[in-house]
Amino acid sequence: MSQRTKYIVSIAIFIAVLVIDQIIKVNVKTGMFLGERIEITSWFSLVFVENNGMAFGWELWGGKLFLTLFRIVAVSVIGWFIYKEIKRNRPFGYIVCLSLIMAGAAGNIIDCLFYGLIFNTPPYPGVAQFVPFGEGYGDFLYGKVVDMFYFPLIEWDMPNVSYLPYAGEHCVFFSPIFNFADAAISVGIVALILFYYKILNELNK
Question: Fewest CB atoms within 10 A around its CB: which of 14, 164, 181, 188?
Answer without folding.
Answer: 164
